Amino acid sequence: LLRDKFREFSRDTSAIGQERLNGANAAADALIAAGHPDNASVAEWKDALNEAWADLLELMDTRAQMLAASYELQRFHHEARQTLAQVREKQKLLPEELGKDLGTAEAMERLHSAQERDIQALSAQVRQVQEDAARLAQAYAGAKAAEIRQDEAGGSQAWAELRGRSQSRRRLLRDTVEHFRFLRSARDLLLWMEAVGRQMEAHQRPR
Could you please report the per-residue DSSP string of 124-167? Predict the structure, then answer.
């Protein structure tokens, strides 16, 4: 990464430059202390060197801050788009089938419970993207701020749609399971009544 390379460059440059500047300052101080005839010129050169070094350090610090900000922005866009892709993948995994009998409907309901846990695991990731977007949008303006809001909005909308579909499917599956359970109970009751009727027709004492 460019940021890491510059950090290494800045660290090495600062160490080497400070060592060389210390040497130059020591040599200037020695000349001045010895009463060199060009003391005034030596002092001016010393001040100029220290001022230039301070300017260079400030420039490197500014550059490091810019690279850090750029890295953070790029990281946000990457994570926002990755989160959106994961949300859309979860949407694709939600089937439409509800089951053709009680057994398959209950199996579908158990599968959906597992899928809901997977979906819930994404909530922290989505929330982090939203928080990062709110913070970064305050630091940028114009096109960059618009891109930040666009990435956040896309993820938030897809997340809301996924949760809505998941909740709707849970209700449908619950209704389907209850429907099949009612049908099974009704069939069992009908069979029992038919059996009682047959006993009465056979002049047996109903049990």
Answer: HHHHHHHHHHHHHHHH--HHHHHHHHHHHHHHHHHHHHHHHHHH
Pick from 68, 61, 87: nearest CA to 2: 68
Q: Please give the model's pTM, rounded to 2 decimal places.
A: 0.69
Domains with residue ranges and CATH for the chain? 1-204 (1.20.58.60)
- Cα dihedral 93, 99, 100, 105, rounded to 10, equals 160
d(CA 28, CA 26): 5
Beta carbons of 125 and 83 less than 8 angstroms apart: yes
Structure tokens at 5: 């390379």
- Torsion sign across C-alpha atoms 61, 67, 70, 72: negative
Return the ∠ at Cα 119 (arms to 76 and 152), rounded to 5°: 25
Residue 124 and residue 129: Cα distance in Å, rounded?
A: 9
Q: First-to-last CA distance in the chain?
A: 84
Give 4-24 pLDDT, tens digit per residue.
Answer: 676 777 777 888 888 888 888
- Do 90 and 118 form a contact (C-beta atoms < 8 A)? yes
Task: Determine the Cα–Cα distance for residues 63 and 75; give it in Å rounded to an integer.
Answer: 18
Q: What are phi and psi of 99, to 5 degrees?
A: 105, 140
